[in-house]
Amino acid sequence: MLTANRLRDGDVLYRKGSGWVLMLSDGEVYREQAAADAALAAATAELARNEFVAPYLFEVREVGGKIIPVKEREIIRAAGPTVHPHTGKQAGQFHA
Amino acid sequence: MLNTLIKPVAPNMYRYDEFDAQFVTERVNQFAGQVARRLSGELTEDQFKPLRLMNGLYLQLHAYMLRIAVPYGTLSSKQMRKLAHIARTYDKNFGHFTTRTNLQFNWIKLVDVPKILRELADVEMHCIQTSGNCVRNVTADQFAGATDEEIEDPRPLAEIIRQWSSLHPEFVFLARKFKIAVGATEKDRAALQWHDMAVQIVKNAQGRVGYKVMAGGGMGRTPYVAHVMSEFVEREDILAYLEAVLRVYNQDSRRDNIHKQRIKILINTIGPEEMRRRVAREFEELKRMGTLQLPQDELDRITAYFAPPKFETGLPDTIPDAGPDFANWAATNVHKHKAPGYAIATITLKTPGQVPGDATSEQMDVIADLMDQFSVGEVRVTHEQNLVLPHVRKQDLPAIYAKLKELDFAAPNAGLITDIIACPGLDYCDLANARSIPIAQSIAKKFENLDRQHEIGELKIKISGCINACGHHHAGHIGILGVDKKGVEFYQLILGGSGAEDASIGEIMGPGFGEHEIADAVERVVNVYLKTRKPGERFLDTYRRLGMAPFKDAAYEKVAA
Known about the structure:
heterodimer, A: 96 residues, alpha+beta, two-stranded antiparallel sheet, 2 helices, 6 strands, B: 561 residues, Sulfite Reductase Hemoprotein, domain 1, six-stranded mixed β-sheet, 17 helices, 21 strands, globular
């Protein structure tokens, strides 16, 4: 998948089509490396729009029909801090 | 709040003069302009990043993080209330006190930063030099001005160093960050020897007060304890001497390898003797020019800001009897004050299960009330992520304790095994490899039985989520370092470190433990100590006597523990 942070508030974004969504579950999974590379190239080209920063690809796996990041870091970015479950996307909190 | 009629008290601390106020206002306006230019696209991220870092603004996992300087850990009640207000208005209602005695907000929006900086400037606070390759927030002994152990209050010198090093034209673009601490007692509560540079206020054989200067301490990937640069620097020469050390570092440090850019690497590469020689040469040059003397009247002017409060006389000099829970708290969290009838009270932000160093807006507001009502409007932030009420009447301690209980900040554990330092770790930090906070919570819960904590005695656990060591794991009696192995968190144990006057670098035990194994491994290590200690030995003493082997055997369950 492809992720970035929104410039104006830092919120975590996931690529979907030619745009971005706020929830990992709504994001696009690239099953082919070529598709992932193309998405990253497109996002990199869009950096000049100054809407998001630092796009990068990360690995996910499918567990029981759910998409889950391979690395703990991305699990936490997708949900929020494990120590404050009342904050972050896990609590339904997004920056407006 | 305790009482909405509580009148804010203006403590004796440094107050901005016209120059300071104008300087901070101009800096806020400058950064507001830079934020606007970034949002409009006039600045790219690559251009903007060093500018935001110079203003304490990081991009972390979930949002921007803003780090606010708390010089030498001293906060007024007015400032504490402002921090509570910012947490409530711009963040998610809590802030995090750090090992650099700063405060971090973890959920900041870039668009709000100019407003926040203006709010901070209203109470004489800022974020300047809380990140970037410059001299960072100067820290000091949290008992400064209150303990009878000190030669003199170290905060005036810390303030002078802060002023000298703020936007110093020669030292704004150092090879790497540079941390300075100041102490004035034999007992080191400020981890002096772990700093890039540290000043200890001392008396020489003639009884004259001056400064012992150390340099080259540091944690991170390559830990070192500082070397003494000079046993005694005269008062008027201190800035020239510190400038000489920084000048040698700035000129001679490597800038080609990020892992070799700190002063500790320079000193341990060329050797402390050669470093002292180079510093002496620069110092002589600075002395000869005579442009960087610290005049006594300027020292007196700054010292006057920190004049001791008017202590009442004739107060009862005993701690009241207010039940066993209070007595437990007083035994660990109350320390001797220099004035009869007064005490120093430590508020540990470490009730087992809490996030070390976190405080909500409501908790900050009530602490501000406690500061006004009981401690001349002042609190200190400690590098151990606690708060200290520096000047409280002993007779008021039960009332303070009762209020802290309501806040859930009354844990009687200062210096005990549950008083754990932990960096934000992978729950927030972009650099982290593993989470720190949940490990601190699980260990604190495992040892929350108070009798057991007291039986164990002084034991400092320090946890970092990566090699950068913001959680001071090298200096923990038991240190824990989180590492990433193919996306999974593991935790290495490190034993025998100390951040106190007996500073030492901890030794890595061996392969890491899993997230759900580490607290049990710590328990097995502690059990070895309990079985093998001699009377009066702390954990650290027993470790130093026995070495790693018995602890390692127990931790990896090669023997029953």
